[in-house]
Amino acid sequence: MDRAARIVAGEEQDMNQEPLLERFAAIVAAAQREKLARWMRNFGYATGHGDTMESLLDHLGTQITEGLKVEVLMERAACADICDQHASIEGIAQRCAAEIRARSK
User: Fold this and answer.
1) Average pLDDT of the residues of the chain
2) SS3 sequence, 11-58?
C-alpha cells in the first residue's frame, strides 16, 4: 500500500504543515484509481495488484497488446482459410495460404 493510501486509511500520520490537503489529495487519488479499476473490470480486463494509476495503466496496456496479438493471429488464420476455400489447380491460393500461416510463426 502506498503512502497516500495509508494516510487515507488513517494508518499513517502526515507531519507536513498541510496534512488536510495531503489527505484530500490521497482521497482523490484513491477515487481515481478505483474509477480506473472499475472501468477495467467492466470491460473484462484484470486489474492485477495495481495499487497505483501507473501500475493499473501498465497492466491494461499489456493486456491490450496481448489481445491484439491474438486478434492478428486469428485474422491471419481466417485469411488463410479463405485462400484454401478458393484454391485452384494451379496452387496459387494454397501457396498464398501457406505464406499467410508462415507469418504467424
Assistant:
1) 82
2) CCCCCCCCHHHHHHHHHHHHHHHHHHHHHHHHCCCCCCCCCCHHHHHH
